[in-house]
Structures are given as structure tokens and as C-alpha cells.
């Protein structure tokens, strides 16, 4: 007799074994990756390297220990793997190199600060990386036991962009480009200065130059969209700019023949709603940059939300013959992998299954492609495709046993008409043991961003709520990504109008389902989803309960309190500031309408949220208390805006249980 399946629990967060850093070997025979595990006793997250063969077979653990081993990168000859690890010092990571055929990892670097991205030189003799040193004040405090015990005395702030969610207060030091000899460990700093940062270094095919992106405006914090491409000589540090069209750029990569540079470019201050596009420019600047994807109305990159995986946009990847470029596309609830010819023709689907390509990597010499692929019902697992034969093979199954033992319920995809007759996409998750002849309480989930999308990416939170008898439904209203620029632009300087109408059209459709109890409906969302939740309770009382999470409630006080000080005004029109146009900000503030709220509302926020400051939720809570509306405030110490996705696991579980408790109180 088959064993009865369990339902998803909050504690299953300890059982997921997340994969990242997927890299295929140069010969296409092996894949190295990072695998996460959580120590429940200490609440610490550890990462070790694993290796799988592309022909199949059981993956094997490659590094061991209670440490963080991440960012594996094969040497060009495939004999070694470089990675970043804190194995030597829990508080200070370094770059390590380990032989693939056996042996101990050796530290390559010995510098104090933070490592960004890195890669091997084409000849395997050097590595390039971007690095941010520790501030001298921090080093001085660490060298003095008494000062270290007393902690920080003050913070002297001189720049606009001085804090970042998930990082905290930023150092005075900047990100710069370094190289290190792969044998001797001798490191050399190529760029310096206290005004500019340099990111994402990449070698030229001949190993003589390094490509990176940097904002070199007079004040990069104010002119945040002036990000351009630069090339620096390894021999003499001579620097020059690649001439392109204006707009923030990222993820630039040389073609293997050295003739082209592929890069991503997005909208700036006046057009945040624009798609990110794939561009190419001749390396020597003898003709203008060309937008390869602009005519297709596609958003390049990975912006599909989840809470048990990554959301990693990968750099454009060239084919060995420099004729084709591979890249991700956010589209209709999926993140696809596509390719396009360097002349802009032959746009093709490479991975088209319903789901999300979290990461991908191509072995040019073997023609094999590997990707980390997730679906609505499974976190990421690794798939390898032989492009010559077009045969694919799944080579990891780390979540197979867990998911086989769980009844997730069922998901139905729905296309429906929005408030203006526009086409919208949504999903309905019914609980395990669903009986269409019964009536169920339901919960509307609203995504954050707003420039993201829900879709075919597993959301543990949704399955957790469904496991407790709720129909969970979610959609992509206007303002998000994946449905063209008009869809995204629809709420530009108009939050709470068409997006609200689309959500209400979705609720109208759900209410028509015979299995929905219209008297037991709840609503929740975080960040922009928290904005919409708070907006909803100020405009309708059709919901019996609400949970507003990490919300934006007051667009005026949001300016300057979070880490979006330079970007926030761009959401309200070109260079629009609240002191010049108070009404524009106030019109798009849920707190303006809080006086009409009657819905019992749980308010959740992290105390170290530097994206949407906790004062945004404090305003909601105090207002509702003053109005006599049933409300509670749950605060999570030492957590950031990303609590629901990457916070300490016991706090993530507590958050889920608070949400469930609140909805059970009013909907059951």
C-alpha cells in the first residue's frame, strides 16, 4: 500500500537543498555547482561544492566542512576549480584553487575586504576580480580588542547612496579591478579612486585587456543611470571608454574572435519602464551599437519571483564561432533561454519548457549547455543539453525524495481580461484533497517590484497556505514585466490605478468559481505587493483579512528613508521631487486612503529593511490602531527586505506561521 503523502510544512524550508553557481567543464564532461544546507541548531547556512557528470550518474560532494564555498569557476584547461570561501576565516573570504583530480584547496589571495565576480584569464595564468577593501577605520578597530568590543562610535555620511538593503551601511572604499597570479598569489590593483566603482570584469580573448562597467558621472549617486563600458590594459592600466548609446549597461562580454562586445542596456531616469535589451558594439568602435532585441518587445534577463531559489540574470554568452549569443528572457510567467545571431536575425528558443532558467553556462569546445531549471512544482535542478543532437538530460535530483512525499495540490493557469480588456495571466492553486463541491477560503497574493512577474517558479509560501486549506491565486497585473513595454508602462507615475483595477478584475473572476466562499477572502503581498495590499484595504472591504508586508505606504516619506533615494523620484516622472510636486507623491500613497480602512490587517516588517524602511509599516499600524481597526505589528530583528526569500530560517518560519494564524482567525 503506497505511503500517504504529507503536505508542505513551514519546516520544509530546512529540507530544501538549493543549488547555485552551475558551471560546465571546458570539455563538457562535468558540472560543478554549490549546494546549500542549513544547520537547524545554529541557523547557519553552509555551501559546499558538488560535481556531476554530464553523462549521468550520482553527483558527488567535492568539498566538505561547515563553511561557505561559492562561485566555482573552471580553469581553461579544466584541471582546477577556483572558488570563493571563508574556510580559513569565517569573517573573511578569499579566492581558493583546488585540483579537480584530487588534493587540498589552497588560498590564492590574502586581502581584507569583499570579493565580487571573478574569472580566469584565457591562458589560465591569472584571475581578474573586483574587490572592495575594508575601510581603514574598520581595520583599526579590528586591530584593537577594546575598540572592537565597544563597536562603532559614529557613522560619517558624505554620499547619497550610503546604505544598501542586505548589506547595511556601505564602506567608504569603492569596488575596483584587481588581477592575481594563479600560481604565486601576487595581487595587483588596476583601478583606484574614491568616487567610482568598477563591476563585472571580463578578459579579452587575447588576455591583454579587461572589460568592465562603471558610472563615471560627476556624481554617480545622482546620475545613477550613467553606467558605461570601459576597457583597461593589463600591461599599463591604460583606460578607454566604449562608445555606445546613453543608458545604464551591464554584463558586457567580448566575442571569442574579439570583434564584438555584447551587453545589456536598460531604461534610465526617464524610461524605467523600458525592457532591458541585448546590444552589440564593435570592439574598435568603427560603427554604432546595435540593439538586437529591441524590435521583439522582450525583457532580457531573469525577473520571475520565487522564495526558495535564485533570481540570477546571467551574462550574454557567445557561441564558439562568435555568430550566436545566448541570453535569458522574462516572458509570460517563464524565464526562457533564447539565442540570436550577431546581426539580429535568427531569434530562436533554446529552452522553451514551462519554467525558469535560473542560470546557464555553455561549454564552447564541446557544444554542451547546462542550466539550472526550476518549475512551478520543483526548485532548481541541473539539465545538460547536447546542442548537436538536441538531447537533454537531468543530472541532479536533490529534491526528488522530498517532493515525491508531498501533496502540493494542483495549479491551473488562467488567461483573463483585465479592467480595460487587456489580456492578463494568472494561476489558481487549489489545496491538497481539493473537492470542487465544497467551498474554500481564499488568499490573493500580490507580487512585489512592481517590475517583476509571478509564474512557473516554485513558491513555498503558496503551497504552505494551500496545505492549510486555502485556495491561493495570483496574477501579473499591469506594471510588471514579461508582457511587453506597454504592460509595464501602464502604471508609470500612476500606482494604484490600472494595477488595482486589474487585480479587482482577477478577484471578480475568482469569485465566480463555485468552490470559492466569497465571505472568506484574504489578501497579502510584500514590498510593492504590500503597497497594493494597503491600497486595497483603503478602497474596498471585500476582503475579510489582510497581511501587509514590508510595505510602501507613504511615497513622500519613502523618499530618503530607503536605499532608493536616487531612483525613487524616477517612478513619478522625469526628475519629479515631492517638494516640487507634493500631490503626485501623495496621490500614490496608500496612507492617504487609510481612513476608509475596515479590514483586519496584520502588518509585517523587518527592522533592518533598508529598501522600504520600517517606518512605512509603522504608519499603517498606528493609523489602523487609531481608527479602531483590528491590527497587529510583527517586527523581525536583524532581517532585511529579503526576509521571505533569504532570511534566517527560523524567522522565515515564524513569518509564515504569523500569516497563517491571522488568516485562520478571520477566514476559518
- Percent strand equals 35-45%
Write out the CATH superfamily name of the domain at 409-667.
Alpha/Beta hydrolase fold, catalytic domain
Gap between N and C termini:
33 Å
Uncertain residue ranges? none
- Using only C-alpha atoms, the radius of gyration works out to 25 Å
Largest sheet: 8 strands, mixed
| Order of neighbouring strands in the sheet with most strands | 34-35-37-36-38-39-40-41
Tally the helices: what do you get?
12
* CATH C-level label of the domain at 409-667: Alpha Beta
Fill in the keyword field for this structure:
single chain; alpha+beta; 8-stranded mixed sheet; 5-stranded antiparallel sheet
Architecture blueprint of SSEs:
Blueprint: E1 6-7, E2 19-24, E3 30-39, E4 44-53, E5 60-61, E6 69-74, E7 80-85, E8 94-99, E9 106-107, E10 113-120, E11 126-133, H1 136-142, H2 145-150, E12 163-164, E13 168-169, E14 175-181, E15 187-189, E16 198-203, E17 209-215, E18 227-233, E19 239-242, E20 249-254, E21 260-265, E22 277-282, E23 290-291, E24 299-300, E25 317-318, E26 324-331, E27 334-341, E28 348-351, E29 356-363, E30 368-375, E31 378-386, E32 391-394, H3 400-404, E33 406-407, E34 410-417, E35 423-430, E36 440-446, H4 460-467, E37 471-475, H5 485-489, H6 498-511, E38 516-526, H7 528-537, E39 545-549, H8 555-558, H9 582-587, E40 601-606, H10 615-627, E41 631-636, H11 643-646, H12 649-667
Parallel strand pairs: 1-33, 36-37, 36-38, 38-39, 39-40, 40-41
Antiparallel strand pairs: 2-3, 3-4, 4-5, 6-7, 7-8, 8-9, 10-11, 11-14, 12-13, 14-15, 16-17, 17-18, 18-19, 20-21, 21-22, 22-23, 24-26, 25-26, 26-27, 27-28, 29-30, 30-31, 31-32, 34-35, 35-37
Amino acid at each position: 500500500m503506497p505511503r500517504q503523502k504529507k503536505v508542505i510544512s513551514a519546516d520544509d524550508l530546512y529540507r530544501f537543498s538549493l543549488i547555485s553557481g552551475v558551471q560546465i567543464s571546458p570539455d563538457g564532461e562535468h558540472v560543478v555547482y554549490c549546494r546549500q544546507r542549513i544547520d537547524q541548531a545554529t541557523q547557519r547556512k553552509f555551501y559546499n561544492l558538488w560535481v556531476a557528470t554530464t553523462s549521468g550518474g550520482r553527483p558527488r560532494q567535492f568539498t566538505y566542512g561547515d563553511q561557505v564555498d561559492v562561485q566555482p569557476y573552471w580553469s581553461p584547461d579544466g584541471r582546477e576549480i577556483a572558488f570563493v570561501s571563508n574556510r580559513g576565516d569565517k569573517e573573511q573570504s578569499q579566492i581558493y584553487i583546488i585540483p579537480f583530480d584530487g588534493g587540498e584547496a589552497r588560498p590564492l589571495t590574502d586581502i581584507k575586504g569583499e570579493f565580487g565576480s571573478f574569472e580566469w584569464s584565457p591562458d589560465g595564468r591569472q584571475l581578474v576580480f573586483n574587490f572592495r577593501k575594508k575601510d581603514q577605520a574598520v581595520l583599526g578597530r579590528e586591530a584593537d580588542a577594546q575598540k572592537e568590543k565597544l563597536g562603532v562610535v559614529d557613522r560619517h555620511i558624505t554620499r547619497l547612496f550610503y546604505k544598501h538593503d542586505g548589506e547595511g551601511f556601505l564602506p567608504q572604499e569603492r569596488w575596483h579591478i584587481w588581477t592575481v597570479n594563479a600560481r604565486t598569489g601576487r595581487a595587483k590593483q588596476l583601478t583606484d579612486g574614491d568616487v567610482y566603482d568598477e563591476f563585472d570584469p571580463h578578459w579579452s580573448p587575447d588576455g591583454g585587456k579587461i572589460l568592465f562597467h562603471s558610472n563615471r558621472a560627476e556624481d554617480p549617486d545622482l546620475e545613477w543611470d550613467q553606467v558605461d563600458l570601459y576597457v583597461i590594459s593589463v600591461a599599463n592600466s591604460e583606460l578607454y571608454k566604449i562608445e555606445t548609446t546613453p543608458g545604464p549597461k551591464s554584463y558586457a562580454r567580448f566575442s571569442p574572435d574579439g570583434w564584438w562586445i555584447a551587453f545589456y542596456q536598460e531604461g534610465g531616469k526617464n524610461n524605467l519602464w523600458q525592457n532591458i535589451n541585448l546590444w552589440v558594439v564593435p570592439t574598435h568602435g568603427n560603427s554604432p551599437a546595435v540593439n538586437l532585441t529591441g524590435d521583439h518587445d522582450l525583457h532580457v534577463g531573469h525577473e520571475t519571483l520565487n522564495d526558495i531559489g535564485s533570481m540570477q540574470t546571467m551574462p550574454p554568452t557567445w557561441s564558439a564561432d562568435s555568430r550566436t549569443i545566448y541570453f535569458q528572457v522574462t516572458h509570460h510567467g517563464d524565464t526562457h533561454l533564447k539565442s540570436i545571431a550577431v546581426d539580429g536575425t535568427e531569434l530562436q528558443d533554446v529552452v522553451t519548457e514551462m519554467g525558469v532558467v535560473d542560470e546557464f553556462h555553455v561549454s564552447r569546445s564541446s557544444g554542451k549547455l547546462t542550466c539550472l531549471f526550476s518549475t512551478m512544482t520543483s526548485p532548481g535542478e541541473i539539465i545538460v543539453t547536447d546542442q548537436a543532437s538536441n538531447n537533454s538530460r537531468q543530472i541532479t535530483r536533490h529534491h526528488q525524495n522530498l517532493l515525491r512525499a508531498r501533496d502540493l495540490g494542483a495549479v491551473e493557469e488562467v488567461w483573463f481580461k483585465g479592467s480595460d480588456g487587456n489580456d492578463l495571466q494568472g494561476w489558481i492553486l487549489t489545496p491538497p484533497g481539493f473537492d470542487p463541491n465544497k467551498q474554500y477560503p481564499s488568499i490573493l497574493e500580490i507580487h512585489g517590484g512592481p517590475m517583476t512577474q509571478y509564474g512557473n517558479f516554485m513558491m513555498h509560501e503558496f503551497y504552505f497556505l494551500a496545505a492549510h486549506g486555502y485556495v491561493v491565486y495570483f496574477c501579473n497585473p499591469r506594471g510588471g514585466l514579461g508582457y511587453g513595454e506597454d504592460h509595464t508602462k501602464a502604471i508609470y507615475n500612476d500606482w494604484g490605478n490600472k494595477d488595482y483595477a486589474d487585480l479587482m478584475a482577477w478577484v471578480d473572476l475568482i469569485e465566480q468559481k463555485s468552490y470559492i466562499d466569497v465571505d472568506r477572502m484574504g489578501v497579502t503581498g510584500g514590498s510593492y505587493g504590500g503597497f497594493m495590499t494597503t491600497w486595497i484595504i483603503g478602497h474596498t472591504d471585500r476582503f475579510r483579512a489582510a497581511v501587509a508586508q514590508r510595505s510602501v505606504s507613504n511615497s513622500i516619506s519613502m523618499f530618503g528613508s530607503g536605499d532608493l533615494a536616487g531612483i525613487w523620484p524616477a517612478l513619478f516622472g522625469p526628475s519629479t521631487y515631492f517638494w516640487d510636486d507634493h500631490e503626485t507623491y501623495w496621490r500614490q500613497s496608500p496612507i492617504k486612503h487609510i481612513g476608509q480602512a475596515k479590514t483586519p490587517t496584520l502588518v509585517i516588517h523587518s527592522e533592518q529593511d533598508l529598501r522600504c524602511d520600517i517606518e512605512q509599516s509603522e504608519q499603517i499600524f498606528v493609523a489602523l490602531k487609531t481608527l479602531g481597526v483590528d491590527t497587529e505589528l510583527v517586527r523581525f530583528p536583524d532581517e532585511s527586505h529579503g526576509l521571505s526569500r533569504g532570511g534566517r530560517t527560523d524567522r522565515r518560519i515564524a513569518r509564515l506561521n504569523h500569516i497563517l494564524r491571522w488568516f485562520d482567525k478571520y477566514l476559518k
